[in-house]
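Record filed below.
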Amino acid sequence: MSDADYQRLSRAMLDHIEATLDAWLDQDLVDIDSHRTGGLLELSLPDRSKIVLNTQPPLQELWLAAKAGGYHFRYVDGLWRDTKTGVEFLTELSAQLTAQARQNLQLPPLALAAS
């Protein structure tokens, strides 16, 4: 994948997550604060725990750090997949959000327009 494609896809994912968190806040579903600096998105949950999402341009990966551990994702066949288990990024992030927020939180799939 080209560096430009990686930047577009990783930025779209972080944008999607931020938009979903904003919608959850508007719906009074859960109050998760987010702070983004470039390719780093920090999520602060109601119990004061954090989940950190980070782009890794040299490796063309997305990283997720949560209470349960750290995960690396690479874009494969149209989805960000865990480099060890193959689990899709939004599925894993939803599981980690659910565990740390102690309520069912499911991120919707990200629909990307063809480039």
Summary: DSSP finds two helices and six strands in the chain.
